[in-house]
Write a structure and sequence with these properties.
The chain is of the alpha+beta class and 184 residues long. It has helices at 14-29, 92-95, 174-183, and strands at residues 4-5, 38-45, 48-53, 57-62, 76-82, 85-91, 108-114, 117-123, 125-132, 137-138, 152-158, 161-166.
């Protein structure tokens, strides 16, 4: 399986993707933890760097303008046709309240498998795939009830980089996910 498709981003080998899949699947089958350690695809939203479980990633595509859906929430950019499958495209920058959400040459769509559904997520850029050991991950800090932290698995320090590790399946509320499932 090719991780990249039409994307002007740094090449990631399908070998490392397959290796990650095999290792993480084996860990899950053995009852091991799959949430705090393993391989993560890293990407940028504004000035912050995030990581998501590589096993949730289907492919990375260059940004193409989606077909807008009337009365959709602002973070739902629309839909695209991905090899015959209609895929909703969410803009994570808008969903997470980033100051800007401009489209440029390095803006990409990460095609994800979320709760059995294929969904596209617009991000500013993709960095790389990193192996993150569980001991490198710190719990997310406690915040007031005003800050939605349900999608943050932890914070990882990798060299000089600080990564916010996301549970991408928790990014949408039950109501939002239900609306998506009903619409598509």
């Amino acid at each position: 399986m090719s991780l990249l498709h039409d994307a002007p981003v740094r090449q990631m080998s399908s070998t490392s993707f397959s290796s990650a899949s095999a290792k993480r699947t084996a860990a899950a089958a053995a009852g091991g933890s799959t949430t705090l350690g393993g391989e993560f695809l890293t990407f940028r939203l504004g000035q912050e760097e995030y990581g998501i479980d590589i096993l949730k990633v289907q492919e990375i595509r260059s940004y193409e303008q989606p077909t807008r859906i009337a009365n959709a929430p602002p973070f739902l950019k629309g839909v695209v046709n991905l090899r015959g499958v209609i895929v909703p495209v969410l803009d994570l920058r808008i969903k997470l309240g980033c100051e800007t959400a401009e489209v440029n040459a390095i803006t990409v769509v990460i095609v994800l498998n979320m709760r059995g559904r294929v969904v596209g997520a617009v991000v500013d850029s993709v960095s790389d795939v990193l192996q993150i050991d569980a001991q490198m991950v710190q719990p997310a800090p406690e915040m007031s009830a005003m800050v939605d932290m349900r999608f943050i698995q932890g914070i990882a320090n990798v060299g000089e980089r600080m990564l916010i590790l996301m549970d991408i399946e928790s990014i949408l509320s039950s109501t939002e996910l239900g609306a998506l499932e009903a619409a598509f």
